[in-house]
Amino acid sequence: MMKFQFSPILPDLAAPKAEKLKAFEELMAKPEIGFFRLPTRLDLVEQTKSAYQKFSHKKVFVHVGIGGSSLGPEMIVSALGNKLKDIRFLNNIDPDYIFKQLKDLDPKDAVFFIVSKSGATAETLASFALLCDWLAQHEVGEDRFKEFFIFATDPVKGELRELAKKYSIMALEIPPNIGGRFSVLTAVGMLPALFAGIKIEELLGGASEMAKDISDKKEKHSLWTLAEHLFFQFKNNQINETVIMPYSSSLKDFSAWFVQLWAESLGKKHNLEGKTVNTGLTPIAAYGATDQHSQMQLFMHGPLNKFLFLIEIAAFENDYSLKSSFESPLFKKLAPFTLSELLKAELYGTLKALEKEKRPYAHFTLQKLSENQLGGLILFFEALTALMGQYLEVDPFDQPGVEDGKRFAFEWLERQV
Amino acid sequence: MMKFQFSPILPDLAAPKAEKLKAFEELMAKPEIGFFRLPTRLDLVEQTKSAYQKFSHKKVFVHVGIGGSSLGPEMIVSALGNKLKDIRFLNNIDPDYIFKQLKDLDPKDAVFFIVSKSGATAETLASFALLCDWLAQHEVGEDRFKEFFIFATDPVKGELRELAKKYSIMALEIPPNIGGRFSVLTAVGMLPALFAGIKIEELLGGASEMAKDISDKKEKHSLWTLAEHLFFQFKNNQINETVIMPYSSSLKDFSAWFVQLWAESLGKKHNLEGKTVNTGLTPIAAYGATDQHSQMQLFMHGPLNKFLFLIEIAAFENDYSLKSSFESPLFKKLAPFTLSELLKAELYGTLKALEKEKRPYAHFTLQKLSENQLGGLILFFEALTALMGQYLEVDPFDQPGVEDGKRFAFEWLERQV
Question: N or C: lower Cβ tally within 10 Å for chain B?
Fold first, then answer.
């Protein structure tokens, strides 16, 4: 299980009130909030595996989705994928980018996984339309769509569900009680994970263990300690930004996934009572050691408004000796060590410097980057997001702030006709 | 030349004072500040080209650097690279990541470009040491280093310069008056650009045109308008975060480059008089349309503390029709348009929604994503960063906040022996 340490500069806080704990437990048990109990939905795993078996002969898996439908799978594949299959993400509607993804692709090698919870995401349906046209140019007609597409969408509603019926396309279920940004452990993330050679039962097992640990330890779990510290500092105007910084290139995309989860869940105009609050904690993506040569100057010496989450991988699979025969001082200093020791030293040096500069942090340690540990990390940050929603008194499961932009976009289009 | 538009919600401001303009002109002309005049250094271009000619037969170009030594080249290659050569970046000291980059590599195909301005970057020298060891395992000895390595470093100082002499390794010059995060238009970025098929004279030409435009238009240039708006809002506590959001997947890494430039240049503990100020504007990387399904909820409805820079590409090289025969409402709505029209509509919809929500923005338009336009964009943001340093009264060219972390890291290592 993951380890947690908090900066020694953080104050001692009283335990969270019993009613807060009860409210969170009730929220996690609500039928319409599914993510906390998701890892036990073995029926969904079977559905995903049968889709994989049907298409496992395909050499190229193309994931088509945007935002929460894509950031989760990108994160899992880049953290744990074995790179044996070619996995591509059509996660934007930039035509030059789509051209690059399609230009060397032979349709017979490819399966396209079209992901939209609502079945009504304009970007994703636009990509589906152009892929149908692209297939037609390669002499694949509607009657053969079922050989090239898999959908993931709401089990009943939406335009994708209708198309799936019409063309007998396999359509996996995103449970109605799981929003897009909480969907990584559904078929949305698990199907690409299977193509990337990832052991999905172990990933879900790790998430399940974390959910159980949170339920068992109640207010003694570090989840609560962290939420209390974050809220205490936030309400006293000591922080308004949270930095996520794994010391691992494989977890760079984990930061991007977290950014969406945190920004879209907590950045809200109205609180639960309908009062205008314009609240939220800005998430900042970083990764070590690279960002020690980039954003760290700002984190260390800029405004005192950041809380850092630093993630350590205790053991890597590979390592390199830094021995050399070069005479110069720095090479001699490095020679007794390995690369992973240098990486760890940089993390520990940063923790100490953060303490000196009075910048609060939480330090997470995974024993190694495994399915089990990553599953736990995912569930932990999902739960933290939901809990912070409770502290900030906002709905962490909606996203009303993007509706105006969508409406204005279609108005602009209609004026072009 | 790039176009600039500012949100109609921004107030009218008086022109900047003459002494501010004079101080900036003097700063840009200082011998120790080189980036503004860099695009005219044709001698450096010739040096880079000769390195390219010598190694152009190599199939794999491996760039080894961290922070400013890597983010610039990554940005240029991903924006404009033709993907004909295999270009890899060793931009971190994660041993599993390095293993993945090296495992399928045949030394005879590869050239390693080792980049460190100071010649004393621990991560980069560590990577160099392990690469020497890796070459030795492939029976390449010290006598043949010059066939596998190119350096970029200070023309006189540092450990890399010494090694270059000892082993007759070609070592390109990073001019002493160019800091790492301003080095993208030196050999640091231009050598990988040549391997990626990028026309570097046009890139430098675009940068040069932008520098001339800024010098010619003086306080009438949008550079000044933007800086005035940013500073006005910052000093009145209306903003403390700047979002950079190109509507282009190819410019996703441009955002990462900007983040380093802005964070490391402006995030400072002390002002020029030595007073403790803990200042800086937090840069936030985003890209459209993808982030409309991620961070946009926070930008639109969260705290009113953000100034957005939105970058439009007016014309793409490729495009796709969204026509389809599907009956459902959203497909019918999309059918008359192309993908690039949808992308543009989303940008214009976002601008309108930002106005409604009273979120300030600047809207940049490039005619297309070309060498010339990208060169101009780079120089513009470098100049804006230097100018904002002047407004905030900090030194935008140092980074003292990362020294403690380095020192503590080596102390930690020494305790492990």
Answer: C
